[in-house]
Amino acid sequence: MQHMENFRFDGEQAEVIQAIKFDVVKHEDVISAKTLYLKVNDNVHIRYIVRHLNGDVETTNDFFIGEVSRLDEENNIIVTNFRARHDNYVSSFESQLTEEAIALGVEAERKAKEEFPFDESYVPGMLLNQEVGAEAWYQGCLPGGYVWCGDDCGGSAACWSSTPGVNGLDNCCKTHDCCYSRLGVSYPNCYCDQKLCDCSQAAPFAWNKAIVQSAMCFVC
After folding, report:
1. Quick check: 20 and 32 in contact, CB under 8 A?
2. Is 65 contained in some domain?
3. What are the boundaries of the signal sequence (predicted)?
4. Cα 72 from Cα 5, distance rounded (Å)
5. How far, in Å, are 13, 82, 122, 146, 213 from residue 167 at the CA level?
6. Are 21 and 124 in contact (CB under 8 A)?
7. Phi, psi values for residue 167, rounded to 5°
8. How many domains is the chain partitioned into structurally?
9. Rounded to two decimals, what is the model's pTM?
């Protein structure tokens, strides 16, 4: 990864865009996660995720995901996406945002925030209680009108369905569902899951990114 010129990080000036904690079902597992999404400046955003599995705090791990944006000579938005886990794993890649993708992202963002099931009584691991889990949205499509993202949402139909996702992130989940079906593999599959992690990073402004990335990034 290259050093960014003139980059300065001032923790006191960083703006908190999103700070949530939640449980999410991934097949037979329950992931309890906390995420903090920071706007460092107009061009730099960083998400910190810490999580543990099935109520066992001994499984706790954490990582960073971020974006650095810039305009190219033709005024296209170029984003350097990066993720890091401790000091032994850092990766980055570039993507380009279109005006259409940005517009879809903004609308889906608004709807997802409105439908996000905030619960003041939430405690980590509450989905391990079967009565709660049976009624939880986490086992269906994600809030905001998503049709492919979420446990028991989408499926093998992704390979032939003409139904698009509501935004870039939802389309990433559609590709992920098709990946499992096309390869004929069972959960977990590192190739398909890592592809979804990469794709979610390049999708713009999605409120539900934290949920998808908590379940799919650094799982292998």
Report:
1. no
2. yes
3. none
4. 16
5. 30, 21, 28, 8, 16
6. yes
7. -160, -175
8. 1
9. 0.79
